[in-house]
């Protein structure tokens, strides 16, 4: 067993000793009332002196009030909008675990309605379903052509797909050119207004349609206005929900830390996260069998538009994951340490797929027609294509209360999400609970917040079903190690371009000796001293190195991917979203 629990984290809490044990019972979220100090419907005059003091501290730290919605210290109304506190609903489709339906999906998929893609909507959807997905989002590129006719044209294909594939949830979305930044997935719940909402959004806020003379400040303001527009459409009941995920955030270095924070703060019920790992993973398959390029097409260098504070290492993936996510104590952790609800996903970004044997239909005029003609068989195998079919390699697995579009979006918004590559594991359930609480269905799941009295001992329990069937590359992945990562919640940063969380560390690593069945792990955090969060990752152990913040922070992290030698199948990881533990 790799012992990293000796790392001193006294500033967080008195850490206990993790231990590996097996248990067979299932767990459910324990309902918890929102503490009075956080319930902004209660005036200060009706609070106890201690609650008044706590509220004043939190308000002064910027953790209550404007910009705090859907943070871990949210008001009840904001918490409810973010899917917190968690509750259980009736069983629907998908896989049962821990009281939820775990539904796997992909929120970043292109079709013949994108200028650089080729497949029909039904092609992508059928492949996604065949490769084990429960939900998909069609996200064709924002552009003048797409805004003018593409949003309208793709909708009948999406509706036909919904009718034909009743056991697949097919969302309509688009890939937004964020003004002054990279791309993002934007999607909405199906409704009679879905085309209207997406079309208005794209026509008014897509970066490709804004004046080229815009300043950086004007572009950043337009991005915030776009997110607020989506929130207004939900409030007006045009759609039941709208979500934003920033795509491949570190690829070109143009998503600055302050922009990411500003997107999230513009409306945390809409802007909820970014891709923890990009698509285009097949691009890393070495030649001559593959493209011999960079996973995710992360083969860039800084430009004049890049945020100059980012290190050169940020322009490459690490174990296939974006530097913002893969670096323990890095940008993602800096957001979580503020108490900001900000989640990670993975997906395919499928445009043209590895080993396919088709090409765009002949005589296509995309600029006039807003689409390519249906693809045609060529007999030529695309070994240099950089993408996998949806579900073939990466998946985002969401804990939903039941089967349905709104339920998937609610689960995403609440951060009840874990992600993996190559089907590294079958399923996962993570819970934080008061130590020794072994009641059935107790504990708080991913994305949740645990409120306990100061001095209380808490623990995380993990139930992982190991993989026992071959993945789509025809081998059975073997989980070798699980890491528990803990960081102090320190409140808002003074510098919005901060991308470090110096108190976040790997506090425990478990070597997994079993090859089949279920592994159950518990790790005690000791007595609660200061607020903290915990997240978990796991790996096949094939490629590791100390993290960028040093071996004392992350002794066995993902390895920097080398362009031309980054076989995605030989380097598999899973990551969970966080759970917070706060004193009350």
TrEMBL record:
<protein>
    <submittedName>
        <fullName>Histidinol-phosphatase</fullName>
    </submittedName>
</protein>
<dbReference type="InterPro" id="IPR003141">
    <property type="entry name" value="Pol/His_phosphatase_N"/>
</dbReference>
<dbReference type="InterPro" id="IPR052018">
    <property type="entry name" value="PHP_domain"/>
</dbReference>
<feature type="domain" description="Polymerase/histidinol phosphatase N-terminal">
    <location>
        <begin position="105"/>
        <end position="180"/>
    </location>
</feature>
<dbReference type="InterPro" id="IPR016195">
    <property type="entry name" value="Pol/histidinol_Pase-like"/>
</dbReference>
<dbReference type="InterPro" id="IPR006311">
    <property type="entry name" value="TAT_signal"/>
</dbReference>
């Amino acid at each position: 067993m790799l012992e990293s629990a000796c790392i001193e984290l006294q500033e967080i809490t008195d850490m206990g000793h993790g231990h590996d044990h097996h248990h067979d019972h299932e767990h459910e979220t324990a309902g918890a009332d929102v503490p009075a100090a956080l319930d902004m419907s209660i005036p200060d005059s009706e609070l106890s002196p201690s609650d008044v003091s706590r509220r004043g501290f939190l308000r002064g730290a910027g953790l209550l009030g404007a910009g705090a919605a859907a943070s871990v210290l949210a008001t009840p109304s904001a918490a409810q909008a973010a899917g917190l506190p968690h509750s259980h609903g009736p069983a629907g489709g998908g896989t049962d675990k821990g009281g939820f339906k775990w539904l796997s999906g992909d929120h970043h998929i292109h079709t013949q309605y994108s200028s650089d893609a080729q497949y029909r909507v039904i092609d992508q959807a059928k492949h996604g379903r065949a490769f084990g997905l429960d939900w998909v989002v069609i996200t064709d590129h924002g552009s003048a052509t797409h805004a003018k006719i593409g949003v309208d044209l793709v909708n009948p294909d999406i509706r036909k797909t919904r009718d034909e594939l009743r056991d697949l949830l097919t969302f309509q979305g688009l890939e937004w050119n964020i003004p002054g930044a990279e791309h993002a997935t934007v999607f909405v719940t199906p409704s009679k207004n879905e085309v209207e909402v997406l079309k208005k959004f794209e026509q008014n806020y897509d970066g490709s349609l804004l004046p080229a003379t815009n300043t950086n400040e004007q572009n950043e303001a337009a991005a915030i206005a776009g997110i607020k527009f989506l929130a207004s459409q939900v409030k007006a009941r045009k759609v039941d929900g709208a979500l934003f995920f920033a795509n491949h955030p570190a690829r070109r270095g143009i998503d600055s830390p302050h922009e990411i924070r500003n997107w999230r703060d513009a409306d945390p019920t809409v802007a909820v996260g970014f891709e923890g790992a990009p698509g285009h993973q097949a691009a890393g398959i070495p030649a001559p069998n593959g493209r011999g390029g960079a996973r995710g097409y992360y083969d860039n260098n800084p430009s004049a538009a890049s945020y100059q504070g980012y290190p050169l290492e940020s322009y490459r993936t690490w174990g296939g994951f974006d530097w913002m996510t893969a670096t323990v104590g890095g940008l993602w952790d800096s957001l979580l340490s503020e108490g900001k609800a900000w989640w990670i996903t993975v997906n395919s970004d499928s445009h043209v797929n590895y080993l396919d044997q088709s090409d765009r239909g002949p005589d296509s005029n995309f600029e006039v027609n807003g689409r390519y003609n249906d693809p045609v068989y060529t007999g030529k195998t695309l070994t240099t294509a950089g993408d996998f079919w949806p579900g073939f390699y990466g998946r985002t697995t969401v804990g939903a209360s039941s089967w349905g579009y709104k339920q998937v979006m609610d689960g995403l918004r609440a951060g009840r999400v874990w992600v993996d590559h190559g089907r590294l594991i079958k399923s996962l359930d993570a819970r934080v609970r008061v130590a020794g609480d072994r009641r059935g269905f107790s504990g708080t799941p991913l994305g949740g917040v645990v409120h306990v009295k100061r001095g209380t001992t808490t623990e995380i329990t993990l139930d992982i079903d190991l993989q026992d069937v071959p993945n789509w590359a025809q081998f059975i992945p073997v989980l070798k190690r699980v890491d528990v990562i803990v960081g102090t919640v320190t409140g808002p940063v003074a510098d919005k371009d901060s991308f470090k969380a110096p108190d976040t560390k790997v506090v425990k690593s478990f070597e997994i000796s079993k090859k089949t069945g279920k592994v159950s792990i518990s790790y005690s955090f000791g007595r609660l001293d200061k607020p903290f969060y915990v997240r978990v990752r796991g790996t096949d152990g094939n490629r590791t190195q100390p993290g960028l913040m040093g071996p004392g922070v992350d002794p066995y992290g993902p390895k920097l991917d080398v362009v031309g030698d980054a076989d995605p199948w030989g380097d598999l990881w899973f990551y969970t979203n966080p759970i917070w533990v706060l004193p009350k």
